[in-house]
Design brief:
By secondary structure, this protein is of the alpha+beta class. 45% of the residues lie in helices and 16% in strands. The chain has helices spanning 17-38, 47-50, 71-87, 113-120, 217-225, 231-237, 295-308, 348-360, 378-406, 409-435, 441-470, 475-507, 511-541, 545-548, 558-561, 567-578, and strands spanning 52-60, 94-98, 102-108, 126-136, 153-154, 192-193, 210-211, 247-252, 258-263, 268-269, 273-280, 287-293, 318-322, 325-328, 331-332, 340-343, 366-375. α9 (378-406) packs parallel to α11, α11 runs parallel beside α13 and α12 runs antiparallel to α13. The termini are close together. The model is unreliable at 6-14, 142-211 and 569-578 (pLDDT under 50).
Length: 586
Protein backbone atom coordinates (compact mmCIF):
# COMPACT_ATOMS: atom_id res chain seq x y z
CA UNK A 1 0.00 0.00 0.00
CA UNK A 2 1.46 3.33 -1.07
CA UNK A 3 2.33 5.79 1.66
CA UNK A 4 0.56 9.16 1.60
CA UNK A 5 2.51 11.97 -0.04
CA UNK A 6 4.10 14.47 2.30
CA UNK A 7 2.92 18.07 2.19
CA UNK A 8 -0.45 17.16 0.72
CA UNK A 9 -3.35 18.67 2.70
CA UNK A 10 -6.24 16.25 3.07
CA UNK A 11 -9.83 17.37 2.75
CA UNK A 12 -10.66 19.46 5.72
CA UNK A 13 -7.02 20.10 6.50
CA UNK A 14 -6.01 22.81 8.99
CA UNK A 15 -6.30 26.40 7.72
CA UNK A 16 -4.47 29.54 8.75
CA UNK A 17 -6.91 31.44 10.98
CA UNK A 18 -4.51 34.25 11.85
CA UNK A 19 -4.76 35.86 8.42
CA UNK A 20 -8.54 36.02 8.44
CA UNK A 21 -8.66 37.40 11.98
CA UNK A 22 -6.03 40.01 11.13
CA UNK A 23 -8.04 41.06 8.07
CA UNK A 24 -11.31 41.58 9.92
CA UNK A 25 -9.47 43.32 12.79
CA UNK A 26 -7.89 45.77 10.35
CA UNK A 27 -11.28 46.41 8.75
CA UNK A 28 -12.91 47.05 12.14
CA UNK A 29 -10.15 49.44 13.22
CA UNK A 30 -10.24 51.31 9.89
CA UNK A 31 -14.02 51.69 9.88
CA UNK A 32 -14.14 52.75 13.53
CA UNK A 33 -11.32 55.23 13.00
CA UNK A 34 -13.07 56.64 9.95
CA UNK A 35 -16.25 57.05 11.97
CA UNK A 36 -14.51 59.09 14.66
CA UNK A 37 -12.46 61.11 12.18
CA UNK A 38 -15.57 62.02 10.20
CA UNK A 39 -17.25 63.29 13.35
CA UNK A 40 -20.38 61.21 12.68
CA UNK A 41 -20.34 58.83 15.62
CA UNK A 42 -24.06 58.09 15.59
CA UNK A 43 -26.33 57.05 12.69
CA UNK A 44 -28.59 59.67 11.16
CA UNK A 45 -32.18 59.28 12.26
CA UNK A 46 -35.31 59.40 10.11
CA UNK A 47 -38.20 61.77 10.68
CA UNK A 48 -40.03 59.24 12.87
CA UNK A 49 -37.09 59.13 15.31
CA UNK A 50 -35.55 62.60 15.00
CA UNK A 51 -38.52 64.77 14.03
CA UNK A 52 -38.40 67.22 11.15
CA UNK A 53 -40.62 69.24 8.83
CA UNK A 54 -43.87 68.27 7.15
CA UNK A 55 -44.95 70.31 4.10
CA UNK A 56 -48.39 70.14 2.50
CA UNK A 57 -48.61 71.20 -1.16
CA UNK A 58 -51.86 71.76 -3.06
CA UNK A 59 -51.96 71.37 -6.83
CA UNK A 60 -53.30 74.32 -8.80
CA UNK A 61 -54.31 74.06 -12.45
CA UNK A 62 -53.96 76.90 -14.93
CA UNK A 63 -57.21 78.51 -16.13
CA UNK A 64 -58.90 76.25 -18.65
CA UNK A 65 -56.68 73.29 -17.74
CA UNK A 66 -58.50 71.96 -14.68
CA UNK A 67 -58.20 68.39 -15.99
CA UNK A 68 -54.42 68.62 -15.58
CA UNK A 69 -54.82 67.82 -11.87
CA UNK A 70 -55.06 64.06 -12.33
CA UNK A 71 -53.48 60.93 -10.90
CA UNK A 72 -50.80 60.69 -13.59
CA UNK A 73 -49.51 64.25 -13.14
CA UNK A 74 -49.69 63.96 -9.34
CA UNK A 75 -47.59 60.77 -9.38
CA UNK A 76 -45.12 62.41 -11.76
CA UNK A 77 -44.83 65.39 -9.41
CA UNK A 78 -44.22 63.05 -6.44
CA UNK A 79 -41.34 61.38 -8.27
CA UNK A 80 -39.74 64.70 -9.28
CA UNK A 81 -40.03 66.20 -5.79
CA UNK A 82 -38.56 63.06 -4.24
CA UNK A 83 -35.57 63.14 -6.61
CA UNK A 84 -35.01 66.85 -5.92
CA UNK A 85 -35.02 66.38 -2.16
CA UNK A 86 -32.74 63.35 -2.35
CA UNK A 87 -30.47 65.30 -4.71
CA UNK A 88 -29.81 67.68 -1.81
CA UNK A 89 -28.51 64.78 0.31
CA UNK A 90 -31.79 64.39 2.20
CA UNK A 91 -32.52 60.69 2.61
CA UNK A 92 -35.57 59.04 4.13
CA UNK A 93 -37.71 61.96 2.91
CA UNK A 94 -41.31 60.85 2.47
CA UNK A 95 -43.24 62.19 -0.52
CA UNK A 96 -46.77 60.92 -1.04
CA UNK A 97 -50.13 62.04 -2.33
CA UNK A 98 -53.05 62.78 -0.03
CA UNK A 99 -56.44 62.87 -1.67
CA UNK A 100 -56.80 64.14 -5.21
CA UNK A 101 -54.79 67.38 -5.13
CA UNK A 102 -52.45 67.35 -2.11
CA UNK A 103 -48.87 66.14 -1.71
CA UNK A 104 -47.27 65.61 1.71
CA UNK A 105 -43.48 65.99 2.02
CA UNK A 106 -41.80 64.88 5.28
CA UNK A 107 -38.17 65.98 5.68
CA UNK A 108 -36.08 64.61 8.60
CA UNK A 109 -34.42 66.99 11.04
CA UNK A 110 -30.70 67.62 10.65
CA UNK A 111 -30.75 67.62 6.84
CA UNK A 112 -30.90 70.48 4.31
CA UNK A 113 -34.41 71.38 5.46
CA UNK A 114 -34.30 75.00 4.32
CA UNK A 115 -33.16 74.18 0.77
CA UNK A 116 -35.61 71.32 0.56
CA UNK A 117 -38.52 73.57 1.58
CA UNK A 118 -37.56 76.04 -1.14
CA UNK A 119 -37.37 73.42 -3.87
CA UNK A 120 -40.19 70.98 -3.16
CA UNK A 121 -42.88 73.19 -4.71
CA UNK A 122 -40.80 74.99 -7.32
CA UNK A 123 -42.38 74.28 -10.69
CA UNK A 124 -39.04 74.55 -12.56
CA UNK A 125 -40.53 75.18 -16.01
CA UNK A 126 -37.46 75.97 -18.10
CA UNK A 127 -37.58 77.59 -21.54
CA UNK A 128 -35.05 79.13 -23.91
CA UNK A 129 -36.61 82.17 -25.59
CA UNK A 130 -35.14 84.77 -27.98
CA UNK A 131 -34.98 88.33 -26.62
CA UNK A 132 -36.99 90.83 -28.67
CA UNK A 133 -36.56 93.83 -26.39
CA UNK A 134 -35.04 94.68 -23.03
CA UNK A 135 -35.32 97.71 -20.73
CA UNK A 136 -33.69 98.59 -17.46
CA UNK A 137 -35.78 99.39 -14.39
CA UNK A 138 -34.95 102.36 -12.20
CA UNK A 139 -33.68 101.07 -8.90
CA UNK A 140 -35.14 102.52 -5.68
CA UNK A 141 -31.75 102.93 -3.98
CA UNK A 142 -28.89 102.59 -6.45
CA UNK A 143 -25.46 101.78 -5.07
CA UNK A 144 -23.07 104.60 -5.84
CA UNK A 145 -20.16 102.21 -5.85
CA UNK A 146 -21.75 100.09 -8.56
CA UNK A 147 -21.00 100.77 -12.18
CA UNK A 148 -22.82 99.40 -15.21
CA UNK A 149 -21.42 96.19 -16.50
CA UNK A 150 -21.56 95.10 -20.12
CA UNK A 151 -24.06 92.39 -21.05
CA UNK A 152 -22.41 88.97 -20.98
CA UNK A 153 -21.89 87.27 -24.29
CA UNK A 154 -21.47 83.68 -25.37
CA UNK A 155 -18.91 82.11 -27.64
CA UNK A 156 -18.26 78.62 -28.89
CA UNK A 157 -15.74 78.08 -26.12
CA UNK A 158 -18.06 79.46 -23.50
CA UNK A 159 -16.01 82.60 -22.67
CA UNK A 160 -17.85 85.26 -20.70
CA UNK A 161 -17.52 88.99 -21.10
CA UNK A 162 -18.47 89.83 -17.55
CA UNK A 163 -19.60 87.99 -14.44
CA UNK A 164 -21.94 89.12 -11.72
CA UNK A 165 -21.12 89.40 -8.08
CA UNK A 166 -21.45 86.35 -5.86
CA UNK A 167 -24.80 87.28 -4.36
CA UNK A 168 -26.69 84.41 -2.77
CA UNK A 169 -30.06 85.88 -3.69
CA UNK A 170 -29.16 87.37 -7.05
CA UNK A 171 -30.37 85.71 -10.19
CA UNK A 172 -27.57 84.73 -12.55
CA UNK A 173 -27.40 86.80 -15.74
CA UNK A 174 -24.34 85.59 -17.45
CA UNK A 175 -23.25 83.59 -20.38
CA UNK A 176 -23.87 80.37 -22.15
CA UNK A 177 -21.72 78.27 -24.36
CA UNK A 178 -23.93 75.47 -25.56
CA UNK A 179 -24.69 72.48 -27.53
CA UNK A 180 -28.43 72.89 -27.87
CA UNK A 181 -30.90 74.37 -30.29
CA UNK A 182 -32.98 76.97 -28.51
CA UNK A 183 -35.94 78.24 -30.43
CA UNK A 184 -36.14 77.25 -34.07
CA UNK A 185 -38.78 79.76 -34.88
CA UNK A 186 -38.28 82.13 -31.99
CA UNK A 187 -38.14 85.14 -34.26
CA UNK A 188 -41.42 84.31 -35.96
CA UNK A 189 -42.86 86.92 -33.63
CA UNK A 190 -43.03 90.46 -35.09
CA UNK A 191 -39.52 91.75 -35.55
CA UNK A 192 -38.53 94.81 -33.54
CA UNK A 193 -38.11 98.07 -35.34
CA UNK A 194 -35.08 100.14 -34.31
CA UNK A 195 -35.90 103.24 -32.33
CA UNK A 196 -33.75 105.65 -30.44
CA UNK A 197 -34.11 105.50 -26.70
CA UNK A 198 -33.42 107.70 -23.79
CA UNK A 199 -32.02 106.64 -20.46
CA UNK A 200 -34.09 103.86 -18.92
CA UNK A 201 -36.61 105.08 -16.38
CA UNK A 202 -38.85 103.40 -13.89
CA UNK A 203 -41.48 103.12 -16.62
CA UNK A 204 -39.16 100.72 -18.39
CA UNK A 205 -38.44 102.59 -21.64
CA UNK A 206 -36.75 100.04 -23.89
CA UNK A 207 -33.07 100.52 -24.39
CA UNK A 208 -33.33 98.48 -27.57
CA UNK A 209 -36.01 97.88 -30.15
CA UNK A 210 -39.66 97.11 -29.40
CA UNK A 211 -42.29 95.52 -31.64
CA UNK A 212 -44.03 98.12 -33.79
CA UNK A 213 -46.74 95.90 -35.28
CA UNK A 214 -50.22 97.09 -34.20
CA UNK A 215 -51.08 93.52 -33.24
CA UNK A 216 -48.54 93.76 -30.45
CA UNK A 217 -50.01 96.89 -28.87
CA UNK A 218 -51.38 94.92 -25.93
CA UNK A 219 -47.98 93.32 -25.39
CA UNK A 220 -46.28 96.73 -25.51
CA UNK A 221 -48.74 98.07 -22.97
CA UNK A 222 -48.10 95.11 -20.70
CA UNK A 223 -44.37 95.64 -21.12
CA UNK A 224 -44.59 99.33 -20.25
CA UNK A 225 -46.75 98.67 -17.19
CA UNK A 226 -44.64 95.83 -15.84
CA UNK A 227 -42.94 96.77 -12.56
CA UNK A 228 -40.20 94.23 -11.88
CA UNK A 229 -39.66 95.62 -8.38
CA UNK A 230 -43.05 94.19 -7.38
CA UNK A 231 -42.77 90.41 -6.65
CA UNK A 232 -46.48 89.91 -7.40
CA UNK A 233 -46.15 91.46 -10.84
CA UNK A 234 -43.03 89.38 -11.57
CA UNK A 235 -44.94 86.21 -10.69
CA UNK A 236 -48.09 87.21 -12.57
CA UNK A 237 -46.14 88.02 -15.72
CA UNK A 238 -45.33 84.37 -16.34
CA UNK A 239 -48.64 82.81 -15.32
CA UNK A 240 -50.85 81.28 -18.00
CA UNK A 241 -48.22 81.85 -20.71
CA UNK A 242 -47.86 79.04 -23.24
CA UNK A 243 -44.46 78.14 -24.72
CA UNK A 244 -45.67 79.31 -28.13
CA UNK A 245 -46.69 82.77 -26.84
CA UNK A 246 -44.69 85.97 -27.01
CA UNK A 247 -44.46 87.23 -23.44
CA UNK A 248 -42.83 89.62 -21.00
CA UNK A 249 -40.59 88.68 -18.07
CA UNK A 250 -38.23 90.10 -15.48
CA UNK A 251 -34.65 89.22 -14.58
CA UNK A 252 -31.56 90.60 -12.89
CA UNK A 253 -28.49 91.70 -14.76
CA UNK A 254 -24.83 91.07 -13.89
CA UNK A 255 -24.81 93.70 -11.14
CA UNK A 256 -28.03 92.53 -9.55
CA UNK A 257 -30.38 95.17 -11.00
CA UNK A 258 -33.78 94.29 -12.44
CA UNK A 259 -34.46 94.43 -16.15
CA UNK A 260 -37.60 93.54 -18.11
CA UNK A 261 -37.81 91.71 -21.39
CA UNK A 262 -40.08 91.01 -24.33
CA UNK A 263 -39.45 87.40 -25.27
CA UNK A 264 -40.38 85.40 -28.34
CA UNK A 265 -41.91 81.91 -28.43
CA UNK A 266 -39.90 79.00 -27.03
CA UNK A 267 -39.17 75.67 -28.66
CA UNK A 268 -36.56 74.29 -26.24
CA UNK A 269 -37.63 73.51 -22.70
CA UNK A 270 -36.35 71.71 -19.63
CA UNK A 271 -37.12 68.30 -21.12
CA UNK A 272 -34.33 68.90 -23.61
CA UNK A 273 -31.82 69.26 -20.73
CA UNK A 274 -30.24 65.87 -19.98
CA UNK A 275 -28.17 66.91 -16.94
CA UNK A 276 -27.07 70.01 -15.04
CA UNK A 277 -24.23 70.24 -12.53
CA UNK A 278 -22.74 73.08 -10.50
CA UNK A 279 -19.00 73.54 -10.86
CA UNK A 280 -16.26 76.16 -10.59
CA UNK A 281 -15.06 77.87 -13.75
CA UNK A 282 -11.32 77.20 -13.87
CA UNK A 283 -10.74 80.44 -15.79
CA UNK A 284 -12.43 82.79 -13.35
CA UNK A 285 -12.92 80.81 -10.15
CA UNK A 286 -16.65 81.62 -10.21
CA UNK A 287 -19.49 79.15 -9.72
CA UNK A 288 -21.33 78.15 -12.90
CA UNK A 289 -23.99 75.63 -13.95
CA UNK A 290 -23.08 73.29 -16.80
CA UNK A 291 -25.98 71.83 -18.78
CA UNK A 292 -25.92 68.86 -21.11
CA UNK A 293 -28.69 68.65 -23.70
CA UNK A 294 -30.32 65.61 -25.19
CA UNK A 295 -29.54 64.87 -28.83
CA UNK A 296 -32.73 66.57 -29.94
CA UNK A 297 -32.16 69.55 -27.66
CA UNK A 298 -28.59 69.96 -28.90
CA UNK A 299 -29.78 70.21 -32.50
CA UNK A 300 -32.47 72.72 -31.57
CA UNK A 301 -30.08 74.96 -29.68
CA UNK A 302 -27.43 74.82 -32.37
CA UNK A 303 -30.00 75.97 -34.94
CA UNK A 304 -31.33 78.90 -32.90
CA UNK A 305 -27.89 80.17 -31.90
CA UNK A 306 -26.96 80.19 -35.57
CA UNK A 307 -30.06 82.28 -36.22
CA UNK A 308 -29.51 84.67 -33.31
CA UNK A 309 -25.83 85.24 -34.14
CA UNK A 310 -26.94 87.09 -37.30
CA UNK A 311 -29.06 89.61 -35.37
CA UNK A 312 -28.19 92.91 -33.71
CA UNK A 313 -28.38 93.50 -29.98
CA UNK A 314 -30.61 92.73 -28.18
CA UNK A 315 -32.15 90.39 -30.76
CA UNK A 316 -28.95 88.32 -30.66
CA UNK A 317 -29.67 87.35 -27.04
CA UNK A 318 -31.57 84.33 -25.81
CA UNK A 319 -33.17 84.26 -22.38
CA UNK A 320 -33.05 81.24 -20.08
CA UNK A 321 -36.45 81.49 -18.38
CA UNK A 322 -37.15 79.48 -15.23
CA UNK A 323 -40.68 79.64 -13.84
CA UNK A 324 -41.40 82.83 -15.74
CA UNK A 325 -38.24 84.63 -14.58
CA UNK A 326 -35.14 85.29 -16.68
CA UNK A 327 -32.14 83.72 -14.95
CA UNK A 328 -29.70 84.51 -17.75
CA UNK A 329 -29.79 86.39 -21.07
CA UNK A 330 -26.48 85.89 -22.88
CA UNK A 331 -25.85 87.31 -26.33
CA UNK A 332 -24.69 85.05 -29.16
CA UNK A 333 -21.95 85.99 -31.59
CA UNK A 334 -21.59 82.67 -33.36
CA UNK A 335 -23.30 79.31 -33.67
CA UNK A 336 -22.76 77.33 -30.50
CA UNK A 337 -22.36 73.58 -30.33
CA UNK A 338 -20.79 72.93 -26.92
CA UNK A 339 -22.59 72.16 -23.66
CA UNK A 340 -24.54 75.03 -22.14
CA UNK A 341 -22.95 77.03 -19.36
CA UNK A 342 -24.88 79.45 -17.16
CA UNK A 343 -22.68 81.77 -15.15
CA UNK A 344 -22.98 85.02 -13.27
CA UNK A 345 -24.26 85.93 -9.82
CA UNK A 346 -23.76 82.48 -8.33
CA UNK A 347 -22.35 81.26 -5.09
CA UNK A 348 -22.02 77.56 -4.30
CA UNK A 349 -25.49 77.12 -2.87
CA UNK A 350 -27.38 79.00 -5.59
CA UNK A 351 -25.47 77.16 -8.34
CA UNK A 352 -26.16 73.78 -6.78
CA UNK A 353 -29.82 74.65 -6.25
CA UNK A 354 -30.30 75.60 -9.91
CA UNK A 355 -28.38 72.54 -11.11
CA UNK A 356 -30.48 70.29 -8.91
CA UNK A 357 -33.75 71.74 -10.18
CA UNK A 358 -32.72 71.53 -13.83
CA UNK A 359 -31.41 67.97 -13.45
CA UNK A 360 -34.64 66.52 -12.12
CA UNK A 361 -37.05 68.35 -14.39
CA UNK A 362 -40.10 70.54 -14.19
CA UNK A 363 -43.22 69.74 -12.22
CA UNK A 364 -46.26 69.12 -14.43
CA UNK A 365 -48.41 71.24 -12.11
CA UNK A 366 -48.20 74.44 -10.09
CA UNK A 367 -48.33 73.97 -6.31
CA UNK A 368 -49.24 76.28 -3.45
CA UNK A 369 -47.76 75.61 0.00
CA UNK A 370 -50.71 75.01 2.30
CA UNK A 371 -48.80 74.39 5.53
CA UNK A 372 -45.31 73.85 6.94
CA UNK A 373 -45.39 72.01 10.27
CA UNK A 374 -42.71 70.87 12.68
CA UNK A 375 -42.87 67.16 13.55
CA UNK A 376 -41.65 66.04 16.98
CA UNK A 377 -39.94 62.72 17.65
CA UNK A 378 -41.98 61.94 20.78
CA UNK A 379 -44.13 59.21 19.22
CA UNK A 380 -41.21 57.70 17.34
CA UNK A 381 -39.13 57.73 20.51
CA UNK A 382 -41.77 55.74 22.35
CA UNK A 383 -42.00 53.23 19.52
CA UNK A 384 -38.22 52.98 19.36
CA UNK A 385 -38.05 52.31 23.09
CA UNK A 386 -40.65 49.55 22.73
CA UNK A 387 -38.77 48.10 19.77
CA UNK A 388 -35.47 48.11 21.63
CA UNK A 389 -37.09 46.38 24.60
CA UNK A 390 -38.47 43.72 22.28
CA UNK A 391 -35.06 43.35 20.66
CA UNK A 392 -33.35 43.03 24.04
CA UNK A 393 -35.82 40.33 25.09
CA UNK A 394 -35.23 38.43 21.86
CA UNK A 395 -31.46 38.74 22.20
CA UNK A 396 -31.67 37.57 25.81
CA UNK A 397 -33.63 34.47 24.80
CA UNK A 398 -31.08 33.68 22.08
CA UNK A 399 -28.23 33.99 24.60
CA UNK A 400 -30.00 31.71 27.11
CA UNK A 401 -30.58 29.13 24.39
CA UNK A 402 -26.94 29.24 23.26
CA UNK A 403 -25.57 28.94 26.80
CA UNK A 404 -27.87 26.07 27.78
CA UNK A 405 -27.56 24.05 24.60
CA UNK A 406 -24.04 24.85 23.35
CA UNK A 407 -22.31 25.75 26.63
CA UNK A 408 -18.72 26.71 25.80
CA UNK A 409 -19.53 27.22 22.12
CA UNK A 410 -21.87 30.03 23.15
CA UNK A 411 -18.73 32.14 23.72
CA UNK A 412 -17.94 31.92 20.00
CA UNK A 413 -21.52 32.81 19.10
CA UNK A 414 -21.66 35.80 21.43
CA UNK A 415 -18.32 37.14 20.24
CA UNK A 416 -19.49 36.79 16.63
CA UNK A 417 -22.73 38.61 17.43
CA UNK A 418 -20.72 41.39 19.05
CA UNK A 419 -18.48 41.77 16.00
CA UNK A 420 -21.52 41.82 13.70
CA UNK A 421 -23.25 44.45 15.87
CA UNK A 422 -20.13 46.65 15.92
CA UNK A 423 -19.71 46.50 12.13
CA UNK A 424 -23.41 47.20 11.59
CA UNK A 425 -23.36 50.27 13.85
CA UNK A 426 -20.16 51.73 12.38
CA UNK A 427 -21.27 51.22 8.77
CA UNK A 428 -24.68 52.78 9.47
CA UNK A 429 -22.97 55.80 11.04
CA UNK A 430 -20.72 56.18 7.98
CA UNK A 431 -23.52 55.69 5.46
CA UNK A 432 -25.36 58.71 6.86
CA UNK A 433 -23.03 61.38 5.44
CA UNK A 434 -21.90 59.14 2.55
CA UNK A 435 -25.22 58.27 0.87
CA UNK A 436 -27.77 59.97 3.12
CA UNK A 437 -28.90 56.79 4.89
CA UNK A 438 -31.16 57.55 7.83
CA UNK A 439 -32.20 55.04 10.48
CA UNK A 440 -35.95 54.76 10.95
CA UNK A 441 -38.20 52.38 12.87
CA UNK A 442 -38.48 49.75 10.09
CA UNK A 443 -34.69 49.80 9.77
CA UNK A 444 -34.40 49.07 13.48
CA UNK A 445 -36.78 46.15 12.97
CA UNK A 446 -34.55 44.87 10.17
CA UNK A 447 -31.55 44.95 12.49
CA UNK A 448 -33.47 43.00 15.14
CA UNK A 449 -34.53 40.35 12.60
CA UNK A 450 -30.88 40.04 11.56
CA UNK A 451 -30.01 38.72 15.04
CA UNK A 452 -31.85 35.51 14.20
CA UNK A 453 -30.22 35.26 10.75
CA UNK A 454 -26.75 35.63 12.24
CA UNK A 455 -27.41 33.17 15.07
CA UNK A 456 -28.75 30.65 12.55
CA UNK A 457 -25.39 30.65 10.71
CA UNK A 458 -23.54 29.78 13.93
CA UNK A 459 -25.98 27.00 14.72
CA UNK A 460 -25.53 25.44 11.26
CA UNK A 461 -21.74 25.36 11.70
CA UNK A 462 -21.87 24.08 15.28
CA UNK A 463 -24.22 21.24 14.32
CA UNK A 464 -21.97 20.20 11.45
CA UNK A 465 -19.03 20.01 13.86
CA UNK A 466 -21.08 17.90 16.27
CA UNK A 467 -22.06 15.57 13.43
CA UNK A 468 -18.38 14.98 12.67
CA UNK A 469 -17.65 14.26 16.34
CA UNK A 470 -20.52 11.80 16.45
CA UNK A 471 -18.86 9.98 13.53
CA UNK A 472 -15.84 9.39 15.78
CA UNK A 473 -13.51 12.21 14.70
CA UNK A 474 -11.59 14.39 17.09
CA UNK A 475 -12.31 18.12 17.27
CA UNK A 476 -9.51 19.50 15.08
CA UNK A 477 -10.33 17.49 11.94
CA UNK A 478 -14.05 17.81 12.75
CA UNK A 479 -13.83 21.62 12.63
CA UNK A 480 -12.18 21.53 9.21
CA UNK A 481 -14.32 18.77 7.71
CA UNK A 482 -17.55 20.39 8.91
CA UNK A 483 -16.73 23.75 7.35
CA UNK A 484 -17.30 22.95 3.62
CA UNK A 485 -20.74 21.47 4.32
CA UNK A 486 -21.74 24.30 6.69
CA UNK A 487 -20.38 26.93 4.29
CA UNK A 488 -22.65 25.82 1.45
CA UNK A 489 -25.71 25.85 3.71
CA UNK A 490 -24.88 29.30 5.12
CA UNK A 491 -24.30 30.80 1.66
CA UNK A 492 -27.56 29.44 0.29
CA UNK A 493 -29.52 30.64 3.33
CA UNK A 494 -27.99 34.13 3.23
CA UNK A 495 -28.47 34.37 -0.53
CA UNK A 496 -32.20 33.74 -0.12
CA UNK A 497 -32.40 36.38 2.65
CA UNK A 498 -30.45 38.93 0.60
CA UNK A 499 -32.55 38.25 -2.50
CA UNK A 500 -35.73 38.82 -0.50
CA UNK A 501 -34.32 42.08 0.89
CA UNK A 502 -33.27 43.26 -2.59
CA UNK A 503 -36.69 42.55 -4.10
CA UNK A 504 -38.40 44.28 -1.19
CA UNK A 505 -36.15 47.32 -1.59
CA UNK A 506 -36.91 47.60 -5.33
CA UNK A 507 -40.69 47.13 -5.25
CA UNK A 508 -41.44 49.26 -2.17
CA UNK A 509 -41.10 52.93 -1.28
CA UNK A 510 -40.66 55.00 1.85
CA UNK A 511 -39.94 53.48 5.21
CA UNK A 512 -40.23 49.86 4.06
CA UNK A 513 -37.06 50.42 2.03
CA UNK A 514 -35.28 51.14 5.30
CA UNK A 515 -36.23 47.69 6.56
CA UNK A 516 -35.07 46.04 3.32
CA UNK A 517 -31.79 47.97 3.24
CA UNK A 518 -30.88 47.08 6.82
CA UNK A 519 -31.83 43.43 6.32
CA UNK A 520 -29.65 43.21 3.20
CA UNK A 521 -26.73 44.95 4.90
CA UNK A 522 -26.78 42.69 7.97
CA UNK A 523 -27.09 39.60 5.75
CA UNK A 524 -23.90 40.55 3.92
CA UNK A 525 -22.17 41.24 7.24
CA UNK A 526 -23.25 37.80 8.47
CA UNK A 527 -21.23 36.19 5.67
CA UNK A 528 -18.22 38.37 6.46
CA UNK A 529 -18.33 37.57 10.18
CA UNK A 530 -18.81 33.81 9.74
CA UNK A 531 -15.99 33.52 7.19
CA UNK A 532 -13.46 35.90 8.76
CA UNK A 533 -14.24 35.52 12.47
CA UNK A 534 -16.37 32.54 13.53
CA UNK A 535 -14.50 29.89 11.49
CA UNK A 536 -10.97 31.11 12.40
CA UNK A 537 -11.91 31.36 16.09
CA UNK A 538 -13.23 27.79 16.04
CA UNK A 539 -9.97 26.61 14.45
CA UNK A 540 -7.95 28.24 17.25
CA UNK A 541 -10.21 26.94 20.03
CA UNK A 542 -9.93 23.40 18.65
CA UNK A 543 -6.23 23.55 19.54
CA UNK A 544 -6.91 24.30 23.19
CA UNK A 545 -7.13 21.62 25.86
CA UNK A 546 -10.59 22.66 27.06
CA UNK A 547 -12.26 22.26 23.67
CA UNK A 548 -9.85 19.81 22.05
CA UNK A 549 -10.26 17.19 24.77
CA UNK A 550 -14.02 17.57 24.75
CA UNK A 551 -14.63 18.99 28.23
CA UNK A 552 -18.19 18.43 29.34
CA UNK A 553 -18.78 22.20 29.51
CA UNK A 554 -17.28 22.82 26.08
CA UNK A 555 -20.43 21.72 24.27
CA UNK A 556 -18.36 19.22 22.31
CA UNK A 557 -18.14 16.32 24.77
CA UNK A 558 -18.09 13.11 22.65
CA UNK A 559 -19.90 11.10 25.34
CA UNK A 560 -22.80 13.53 25.68
CA UNK A 561 -23.04 13.69 21.88
CA UNK A 562 -23.19 9.87 21.57
CA UNK A 563 -19.99 9.62 19.54
CA UNK A 564 -19.03 6.31 17.90
CA UNK A 565 -15.71 4.63 18.78
CA UNK A 566 -12.83 5.93 16.69
CA UNK A 567 -12.54 4.25 13.30
CA UNK A 568 -8.83 3.57 13.69
CA UNK A 569 -9.28 1.70 17.00
CA UNK A 570 -11.95 -0.56 15.43
CA UNK A 571 -9.64 -1.39 12.54
CA UNK A 572 -6.75 -2.34 14.84
CA UNK A 573 -8.95 -4.68 16.86
CA UNK A 574 -10.12 -6.42 13.69
CA UNK A 575 -6.57 -6.88 12.41
CA UNK A 576 -5.43 -8.26 15.78
CA UNK A 577 -8.25 -10.83 15.88
CA UNK A 578 -7.46 -12.11 12.39
CA UNK A 579 -3.81 -12.69 13.21
CA UNK A 580 -0.72 -11.46 11.39
CA UNK A 581 -1.06 -10.60 7.74
CA UNK A 582 1.43 -11.72 5.11
CA UNK A 583 3.19 -8.60 3.81
CA UNK A 584 2.96 -9.97 0.28
CA UNK A 585 -0.81 -10.27 0.60
CA UNK A 586 -0.99 -6.75 1.93
Amino acid sequence: MAAPKKGRRPAGGQSRPGRALALILIAMVALTGGMFLSGHTTPRLGIDLAGGTSITLKAKAEPGQESAVNETNMNTAVGIIERRVNGLGVSEAEVQTQGRENIIVNIPKGTNEKQAREQVGTTAQLYFRPVLAVAAVEQPAPDASSSPSPKPSASASGATADKGKGDKTATPTATASTKGRAVTEALKAPSPTPTSTASPKATGTPKADTPADPATAALQQKFQALNCLDPKQRTAAGQGVKPTDTTVACGKNAIGQWEKYILGPAEVDGKDVDDAQASIDQRTGQWIVNMEFTDGGAKKFQKITGKLSQQQSPQNQFAIVLDGEVVSAPSVRTTLSANAEISGSFNQQSAQDLGNILSYGALPLTFDTQSVDTVTAALGGEQLEAGLIAGAIGLGLVIIYLVVYYRGLSIVALLSLGVSALLTYVIMALLGPAIGFALNLPAVCGAIVAIGITADSFIVYFERIRDEIREGRTLRPAVERAWPRARRTILVSDFVSFLAAAVLFVVTVGKVQGFAFTLGLTTLLDIVVVFLFTKPVMTLLARTKFFGNGHKWSGLDPKSLGAKPPLRRTRRQSVSAAGPVDPKEA
